[in-house]
Amino acid sequence: MVFALHTVGNMKETILIYVSILIAGGSLSGCSDVDPERAAVIIQRDYTMCGACGGWFVQIDSVQYRADVAAPYNKEFTPVWIRFKKDESDGLKVWGRWINITSIRNRE
To answer: 75 and 43, same structural domain?
Structure first.
């Protein structure tokens, strides 16, 4: 009986060690770098395609991009923090400097 209790205790410790290793390994491999936020200004609507359906001009550093901007931020000269990816899904978009905004928040 004492031997059986001792074996069960060792098995619990072994299981705890394996579970701890799995959790630690999973949390380390699940981490990914987050793109840094960039200071930007929502400049104005882009009227080149049609009456205001061309998105917005977004100024990042000294470069202007075109992007679709979410509702509370789609006002002229709005300073924001954004994360974005360049949209190269269509040849015209590459030349037009389109970006996809992945996150946006006020910069104040």
So the answer is: yes
